[in-house]
Amino acid sequence: MSTAHLRLLVFAMVAVYTSGFLLWYSATALGLAPMLDGREQLELALHLAQGNLPHEPFYRAALFPSLVAWLVKAGVSVQHLPFAVRMMNGGLHLASTMLVWMIAARVWQSPRAAALAALLFGMNPVVLHFAGDPLDLTLAITLMLGGVLSMLLTVQTASGARFALSAAGLLFASACLARPQMVVLLPPLLLGVAWCKSSRRNLVWVAAPMLLVLTLMGMANLKLGGAFQILPWQGAYNLWAANGPTANGRYFVQRERQTVYTEGGNPARIESERLYRREQPGAPDDYATMSHYWRQRTLAYVRAEPGRWLQLVASKVWYLLNNFEQYDIKTYHFHKARSPWLRWNPLAWSWLLAAACAALVMHGRNPRAWAVAAFALCYAMGLLLSYVSARFRLPLVPLLAVLAGGVMCGTSRAVWARALVGAALVFMLSRLPLPRGEAERTVVQDYLLNARAAAELGFSDEALRDARAALSRAPDDAAARELMCVAAFNAWLRAGDYRAAGPQQACAAAADDSPSARRALGVLYWRQGRGAEARALWQALVTACGEQRDAALAALVMVDGIAAAALPDPHCSGPHSDELLLALALRGDGVARGQLAARMSAAELARQTAALRKFFEPPSAP
Q: Is residue 537 part of a domain?
């Protein structure tokens, strides 16, 4: 088979597999309603598109949401934005697969090696698992691989060396703006160019575009928040959370549950600000002061407990080498088992790691292979200061895939034997099992995540099933109790028989920690004829000025006929929710009716009005 036909076959296989998975994922609850970091990225993109960012430097990396903002400006609706971003990620994944082929072809001078490398990356289930969500990782990998290819071109294309060096500096710096962990690759890149005699005088060609990109980011932050900041400032608290006394070295763990959490917010930021104010009462709470505090606290802890910190770093090395994909937003093996496209895919970290080590043993004198290995090693060392979770170590996958392609290149039998023994040892070491219970520790969070997305979409049966599964695993978890109440309540609403017994027991169990549960419990009390108890719950929610304020006000409007002029002081509320406007419109408020007409179609307005009217019919006698 010719090289052209082999390349076409490989890319056809990757394209079909990628498209199949992404289209399947687009019909799932999490595909339709992204959560956590994915939701935050979309919210940031919307703020960028609308020009209403807060007056502060970027808390998160800005490049990926900036690209998503262009989709919004191009006319993509909020409803279709997750799908559009997923298709963009799919295109970036195919571009990365092409770059892996091109890099491997130059490293090994073999189309078979390039084909194997492209398949190992393009068909990798972990890579696709993260490409399905609106995350910055897929873009960062594409930019990083473009930088690696450019560096290889500098030593193979003398006539275009300066252009290739400039492209490398531009692409690596851009990768840092997409994924800040990539910043650890910049110093080795500059040192490597300076060390190489043939390109030392061309150092300015790689440094100039790199500095230009980073300076532009700093200027953007200066204009936006009044400070020249290159990297996002979330890194300061993450440094503490990843290296402090409570760190596990694998993934971020919230120290305290947030009783009020809005999708699109950042739990780590909320926690860092809360802890800072508690530990530094009266101190300035601007971002620079808080960031300085967390950096200094990390350094103080490392100096005070060097042995304990080194033990943590050693555990990170172990988890980095281990085949198990550590939790990061989602537990990979949980979602892989749920996907018909990923479930049977045998590709895993240990196969890549073992094959890459074997290739280096087989071709130990290949300088291009060692250059790729050096990039991988530098990035891996940088991870030891943060987390080694599945998403953080994912940029190593394409680099290992490039190296693994070398097993297709021939060598002597003696070298083959040594490589095979080395690969077997690495494979077995990476396959050592985790401590009992570690693999399943985070699964309850996956049930909760899926239940939350399903509840938001109105998939009542799915939300109820996953909420029950979460509660069975963690009966004392406040979030599980809250979701059980919400899912059971929504299923009760969907049934339409409001005289039937509702999920009172589930909501009562969650009421102490959950405003949503208290609001639902008030509705259940009202349907049972316990009006005084229902009003007391709703009034308390209105007074608390929390996330359920408008919903509680809507209930009071419906049962007591409160007019708009008699509503409590709206100082703690933004624009009225659809539910509150519907209640006011039903009570004859013309302004509310006009606002609703601008928000939804006549058919949707009629449907929701009928549902709300039926919902608050006079309750049955107790």
A: yes
Residue 263 lies in a domain: no
Among 430, 451, 485, give the residue marking a domain's end. Answer: 430
pLDDT tens digits, one per residue of 190-245: 887 877 755 566 788 888 899 999 999 999 988 888 888 888 888 888 888 889 89
> Angle 486-612-566 (CA atoms, 0-180°, nearest 5)?
100
- Alpha carbons 210 and 216: distance in angstroms, whole number: 10
- Do residue 86 and residue 188 come from a single domain? yes
398 in Cβ contact with 355 (< 8 Å): no
Cα separation, 225 vs 221, whole angstroms: 6
Among residues 406, 430, 454, which one ends one of the domains? 430
* Residue 180 located in a structural domain: yes
Alpha-carbon distance of 230 to 219, in angstroms, equals: 8
Task: Report the alpha-carbon distance of residue 237 to residue 294 in Å, rounded.
Answer: 6
Return the pLDDT at 622. 44
Helix (H, G, I), strand (E, B) or coil at 266: coil
Q: In 3D, which of 260, 147, 261, 154 has the Cα closest to residue 203?
A: 154
307 falls within a domain? no
21 and 144, same structural domain? yes
Q: What is the pLDDT of residues 109-158, one digit of tens each?
A: 999 999 999 999 999 999 999 999 999 999 999 999 999 999 888 866 55
To 10 degrees, what angle do helices 349-362 and 396-404 make? 50
- CA dist 178 and 137 (Å) reads 7
- Sequence letter at residue 212: L
- Both tokens of residue 268? 């780590």
Which residues have C-beta within 8 Å of that of residue 281, sequence separation ≥ 6?
Answer: none
| pLDDT band at 562; cut points 50, 70, 90 | low
Site of tokens 């005699």: 197
Q: How many residues does the chain have?
A: 622
User: In this structure, is the dihedral angle defined by the CA atoms of residues 113, 119, 121 and 124, taken in order, positive or negative?
Assistant: negative
| Closest alpha carbon to 355 in 433, 418, 420 | 420
Contacts 24+ apart (CB under 8 A), 434-438: 434/322, 434/324
> Facing residues of 330 across strands?
328
Task: Report the C-alpha gap between 331 and 445 in whole angstroms.
Answer: 8
Pairwise CA distance, residues 239 & 301, whole Å: 12
Which residue range forms the structural domain that includes residue 566?
Answer: 514-622
pLDDT one-digit tens code per residue, 500-524? 667 888 888 888 888 888 888 888 8
Same domain assignment for residues 31 and 162: yes
